[in-house]
Structures are given as structure tokens and as C-alpha cells.
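G., before I forget:
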Amino acid sequence: MTDPSRIVPRWLHVWAVVTLVATLVLLGMGQVVTSHAAGMADPLWPTDPLYVFRTATPAEKERFRSESAFFVEHSHRIAAFSVGGLVILLALGLAVTDPRKVAGGVAVAGLVLLIAGFGDIHRDLMGQNKLIKEGMLSKADIHVPVRATTVSLGGLVIALAVAASGLFARGGTVRLLGTLALAGVMLQGLFGGVRVLMNEVVGPDLAMIHGMFAQVVFGLLAAIAVLSARPNTSNPDAGKYGRVATAVALLVFAQVLFGALVRHTPGPLTQRLHLLTAFVATVVVMWFTHYIMKASCVRARVAPLVWALSGLLVVQVGLGVEAWLARFGDPLLSESARMTPQYIATRTLHALVGSSLWAISLTLALILRRSSGAAAHTLAEPGHDRPNAGGTQVPVCTPETIASHRRGDAR
Amino acid sequence: MTGFHNGRGRSRVTASTALLATAAALAVLPGCGGCTKQPEYPPNLTFPPRADRLVLKLPDKPATALNSPMKREEEIAALDALGGKTLDVSTVPTDARAKLDTFLKDTFGTPAAPLLALEGEAATRLRLSDAHLAEGAKLFRRHCLQCHNLTGDGRGTSSNTIPFPRDYRQGQFKFVSHENGKPRRADLVRTITEGLKSTPMPSFALLQEGERDLLAGYVVYLAVRGQVEFESLGAMAAGQIDDPGARVKAILAEWEKTENSPPVPVEPPGEEHGTPAHQASVKRGFTLFTAKADNSCISCHGEFGRKPVLRYDVWGTVAKPADLTQTTLKSGTRPEDVFARVRFGIPAVGMPAHPKLSDRDVWDLVRFVRSVPYRVQLPDDVRSAVYPQP
């Protein structure tokens, strides 16, 4: 690590950003699966990552080539495996940055146990599937592999305990988030898989949970991407803006969750929740844009993000209207809405822009909150600072510091 | 200290928050209730009248390609140019159509309140009482409607992307165990329980046995309703006198006849895998399979299914004869499954029944078909014929 102001190596921050972008693509593919109503296009789960190219029967390979639902669903599985791999490396890389060498080693060992155990769970379930296919096991007799589950849970506990114990060390938060993100990605995979395996019992409910939890994992990865970046110049005035931005991010998150609810369980309650919150969120984001852009101290740093938030919001409102009409405009039942390419594209884009709004609002909140309390973790140059109550030096809001915000310098 | 920070400011914030929360609750409250119940159909929702084309006659020639799910209606309409015959239901006289729609509503009810008004006793014998149908309807909405749609026309939301959820409305199904082409209730329950291999039809094995039975009953109900509508529209378009009441009776009688017929026999013992008797049976089955005759097995399952001859099915779409060299057959590979296919055929796709074959001949064919995917189970001469490339 050549830059002492960084809490993790630059390559790891770049990896975090790449993982975030890949996860956004995965989210989009998941939303295509839902819009396509392709969640059960292949009732077989789990399968190995390149199943449709390797061990699938010729009939299934033909389905992958010719049936769009099968293609979309299996592409989503392949992308999910890929993102899982990215997050594994991210979590391991973050664990290794622990300044407590022994603890870091134990955390890595815990993560390895978690990954190995999870892989074993997958392999065991695939073996059971093979028996079901051959008629030697009934679907009702599928069981959870106890040993593999115990190993992976044990590894998770170890990794989390080490990460939690180092929370106040340098980079402690981002290491904990890394472990949580890995656990989250694995849990998300299980939600998706059990949705298929137990479709008739909990399928639609788990599909909804899978959609909602994706936003949680996406948020974790966005937080890692932000917090692994080089810290920006401290600014105590950013504190109140950070609190307001946090409230806005939570509101946007709630709206995204309500959107997932209405997508999967379009009843009268969920429709009202999503519609009414849309009005509130639109007004709040517009006000927030004005609020931030009035604040010269923070505006320079976050202006592009704030404009992106407002711009996407305008697009989202339009997409929301079209998606609503496409889904609920049918005089029969919402489940019978005719699926056309426009219908699929509108609903998918609406969900994807929603996820993007959540990521942007969370990023804004984290940057602003970080700006208000970054002094203790960076090296600050004298001459640009004023003392605060704790005795450490923090910069004042001057034209020079504003210009430095714009350049993205750390001092 | 500003007004915001003093006691008056705080109480203003508290009052505003309370007002906001109350307003939000009032706005959302009308949507509450029923979150945990099975979704029920709106009481004023009726089954929509059939709007898609009726397929009355199929082209004689084989099909040239499989269908694209997104172009199903266009490809069905194109059957007329290929020697088939379809009917645009909008050509049926409006007053006759309205009379039929009224009859259907009075006889079969609505999705929220399905019934079989005319035939109380037959409905009871077939376990199609109002109570059975009402529960079946709710389960159908939750588990089946996405693909099979409200009337069972196979044109649900997912049907644009997957070929092709079953259309029940001609009262025809593929995997039957009676020569009249109707499935037993047990056949439907098995399909629901096990799904259809290598197709998007999933297994519903984790549902309660009673729930699967209710679903099967509701499928029968939709099939009866659909067949009455299909045949009545065809009769009206042909200028024939239509008696839908008599049609309901006749169709229910067909279902009852199927239900009361003898079950598929169990495979006789004595010819287990690996025994000389089994090998001899497989050889006889091979001879029957490859016999040169009209409608012989090999005429459609060319090269034992590796070069299938595409055929039109009764729904106007294209069916591909199974590749028997693969280990998966859609309706299952148990001996009784294959027996039923050979004995009763798959009338909906033109696979003929073989009523004149003896049980022994059919079992020989069954053993041959079940052995084809596994080279080691085939006698040497049969293996070299089925798999000429080493």
C-alpha cells in the first residue's frame, strides 16, 4: 500500500467497483427473469455453473438455444455464479488487509470454511437431484446436508467474530461489510434456488424475498465500493447533510422494496404502498437536490451524483407510469397481462433504474457522512485546518477546499 | 436558540409526524386485509369468450419446423394455406354466440364461483362439486394460471416465452390411458405431481395430495367447459343445430368412461434386465418397432428419434416425436408409462394407438424403448442397428 491515506489497496477498491457494476448487471438479469415470468423455466436446481454447456441433456441444451425463458433463467444463474466468485475474492482481499495479522489469518480461514461448506451443500443437493431424476429419490425426501451446513455456518461465525472485533481498527467497517456481503450473496443464492426447489409451497414468496434481498446485497456492495475509496477531505458541515442524505436513502430503499412487493404480490395494499411512496419520494428527492445544491461546502463534491439522482428520478416516474399501465391496465387479471417485448423492457428498466437510485442515494449518504468524520483516519496538512473540540485539525470551507473537493484530493 | 430547537418547535415536529403517520395509515388502510389468504377471483370476473382461431383440420403433410412461442397465432392462421382448416370465431353469428356465452355462464359459472349446473350426479361422481371446484379454482390461480391462463387456453403470461402450456379447451391431452384420448384423473394427478421432464411443467410434489387432486378436478372442469365451447362454435360456423346441453352430457360421459376403465397393467415378471428372456423381448420389440408398415414406429421416430418427422398436433402447433436414444421421456420412463403411450398412443399429436397388439407385443416394445438409451442393455445385433457408429 503506497498511499497512506487509503485504508485498502487501490486494486481492491477497483475490484469492489467492478463487483458492484457486475452486480447491477446481475440485478438487471434477475429483473428480466421476473418480467419474463421465467423463474420456473427450469425446475431443476441446483445445477453446476456451466450446466447448459456441459452436463445438460441434448433436449435441455436445445431448450437453452431456442426458448427465451430457459435462456434468460440460466443466463441469470451463470451471472450469479460469476458475481459470487467476484465477491469471494473481494471478501478474502478485504480480510487480508486487517492490520492485526493473526486475526486476519483467522478471518481468512473462517471465510475459506464458509466457501468450502457452501460448495459442499451445492454438490450434495446436485447429487440428490440426480437421484430424483433417476427416480431413486422423491422430491419430498430432499434433505439439507447437515455436515456441510455446520462447516459453512462455523466458518461464517469465525469470520464475522473477527471482523466485528476489529470494527474500530483501521478499515474495520469495510472488512465487516465484506464478510456480510459474502454471506449475503450466498444467502441470496439459496433464496433463489429454494424458490425453484420448493416452488409449489413457497415459490412466489421466496421469489419476492429473493428480489428484495438483492437490494440489500447490492447496498452492501455499494457501501464497500464507497468506503474502500480514498477518504475525501473532512468537512464538519457535511454532518447534517449526511443525516438528511441517509434519510433520503432509506426512503428510496423503502420504495424499492415496495416495488419488489408489488411486482410479486400485486395486491391492493402493496399497490397503495408503492404508489403513495412514489409521490413522497419524488417530492423529497427534488427538495434534497435543491438542499444540497444550495450548500457550497458539499455541492462541489457530490453535484454529479445529485444530478444523476434527480435525472434518473424523472426517468423512473415515466417508466413507472408505463410499467403500471402494462401490468394493471388489462381488464382481466394482472397475472394475465399480455407479455410483449415492450412490456418486458418497461418493467425491467423500471426495476433496474430503481436499484440504481438506491445505489446513488446510498453512495451520497456515505460520502457525506464520511466527509464529516474522516479526519481521524487520514493525514491532514497544516494551514488548511481549524481545530475542533477533539483537538484534531479539520479544514474550513474555503474556495481552496472547494476546489480540492472538485479535484477529489485527500489532504 | 432557534424555534426549531426549543420546546415549541419539538412539539410542532411531533404533531406533524403524528399527522403524517395518520394520513399515511389512512391512505394505505383500504388495501389491508386478506394478505395471508389465497387470492380469490373478483366476483364479477367472467370467463372471456374464446377469441382465438379454432383448428378444425390439420395439414396432411409433415411440418417443416417447430413453432416460435411469440408467433403462435400467426402460425396457426397460416395452417389454411398448408392444407389445414381453421375458423375465425368472429365469423360466428353474433346472436348465436351470445346465446352460447349465456349458456356457458349459466352452466359453468365464473372463476369465483365455478359449477356444473346441468349434471349434478355426474359432477358428483367425477368429484366436480361446487365446493371442489371453488377450492381448485383458487389453487389454479396461484399455481397454474401464469402458464395455462384463466380458461385453460395455454396462453398465460409465460406462454409467449415457453412452448406450449397445454390448451385444455378441446378436451384433449397428450398422456392418456384410454383409447378415447381422455386422461384418467390419476394421470392428471401424476403429471401435476411429477411434472413433465425436460419441459417447463414443474413438479408439484410438495403440495398436499388433496390439493393436487383438487387441481386435477379443476383441469377437468376447464377441459369440459372448453370442449363444449369449441364444439358448439364449430357446429354454429358449419350451420348445424347446436345443443350444448346434450354436448355437456356426452362429454361428461366420456370422462366417466375413462375413469371407470381398467387401469394400465403392471409389467409381468420373469423378464428382468440382463436375463436371456429380457434380451429376447428387446429383440422382438426392435422387430416390431422397425416393421415396414403404415404408421409404424420408425416412420415418425426416424433413426429411433434422432431424425424425427415433425407433425402437427390438434392445437395447430408442431410436435416432435421423442428421441428414444435419450434417457428422458416427457411422460416418464416407468414401464406402465411407456405401455400407456404404446397401447393408447398420443392421439393429440397423431401417435396412433395399438389396440390390436397383444399385451405381450406391447411389453416387448416397452422393453425395447426403455433399453434404447443404454447400449449395454441391447443385444449385439440390435445395438449395431440402433447405433451404427461405434
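The radius of gyration of chain B is 27 Å. The longest strand of chain B covers residues 54-57.

More on Monday.
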